[in-house]
Amino acid sequence: MRIIINLDVVLAKRKMSLTELSERIDLTMANLSILKTGKAKAIRFSTLAAICKELDCQPGDILEYSDKGE
Q: What is the SS3 assignment for 69?
């Protein structure tokens, strides 16, 4: 089981770059990149809330659970 990060999909729908999101929510590009590539082990609720607020989306738009590939 795993959590899939769909941040790139939501960014594309909003026509926003990772750099622009990074500047708007005051989070480093490195940290956002780790999240976007699915290499993050955790995410703070405050970070998730900031991303959702800026992208006008719900956490479920960004995070997806999958039990395939076990």
A: coil
Nearest CA to 38 out of 65, 13, 20 is that of 65
User: pTM of the entire structure?
Assistant: 0.89
Please give the Cα distance from 24 to 2 (Å, whole number): 28
Average pLDDT across the chain, whole number:
93
Helices (H), 1-70: 7-14, 18-25, 29-36, 45-55, 59-62
Residue 70 to residue 52: CA distance in whole angstroms: 29
Angle between helices 45-55 and 18-25 (to 10 degrees): 120
